[in-house]
Records
---
Amino acid sequence: QVQLVESGGGLVQAGGSLRLSCAASGSISSITAMGWYRQAPGKQRDLVATIASGGTTNYGDSVKGRFTISRDNAKNTVYLQMNSLKPEDTAVYYCKATRYSWPTVYDYWGQGTQVTVSS
């Protein structure tokens, strides 16, 4: 099992910045990737950014060049630095961890943190 605790959401004006954190605990040694997803009201949950255990990153098209995902392995924490925020970035942001235990892949989700960007 993996437990994820997110923090750092809040209200910010357009053009501002926020940094989200996701601390992982439990069976973290077998985590292969972590990432952030977001879900706005009435919409599906979409990819924001992921980072693999080797450091490879992947971003959703709408956040490329504005958001940066990083990880601190010593703290078992993943961060999402969000710059140049837009009202359309408003959503609940969820942290996800993927754990591989052959032959099964397990996905774990955090409880979500609200990000609201005002115009």
Note: The mean pLDDT is 95.
---
Amino acid sequence: QVQLVESGGGLVQTGGSLRLSCAASGSISSINVMGWYRQAPGKQRELVAALTSGALWTKTNYADSVKGRFTISRDNAKNTVYLQMNSLKPEDTAVYYCKVTTGAMDYWGKGTLVTVSS
């Protein structure tokens, strides 16, 4: 089992920045993918950014809508994944969820709300 605790959401004005954090605990030794998803009201949950780690490599991928504005990173010592969000837009308003994958299992956080005012 993996437990995830997200933090960092809140209210910000257009053009502002926020950093989301997701701390993992439990059976974390085999985590190979950590990512952020979001779900806006009335819309489906979508991938925002993901970080896939191998023994000697790391790969990141981003939704087109956030490329150049958001950055995903991971602190292995703290078992934490971050999402730095810059130049926020009203359309970024959503509940942001952390997801980790260990082997064939996916684990989700409870979500943190990000609201961008115009």
Note: The two ends are 40 Å apart (CA to CA).
---
Amino acid sequence: QVHLVESGGGSVQAGGSLRLSCAASRIIFSNDTMAWHRQAPGKQRELVAIIFSGGSTNYADSVKGRFTISRDNGKNTVDLQMNSLKPEDTAVYCCRLIEAGTYRSYWGQGTQVTVSS
């Protein structure tokens, strides 16, 4: 069992920045996959950013060029740097760990991000 706890959410005006952090209850191994998802009210959860074992990344089209996912192999954190925030980025952001080998997913409780215009 892996527990994930997100932090860094809050309220910001459009154009501002926030940095989310996800702390895991164990070391994040280099071959685990880490991701950030978000869910806005009345909408389905969507993948925002993902970072694979080799360090390659993918982003939702809506956040490309504005968000950056990073991980610290050997430690227990994965971050999401969010710049040039827009009101449509308002959502609960959740961290996800996809365990190497088992492909089991673990989720955090989420942190609220609110962007005002």
Note: The longest strand covers residues 91-98.
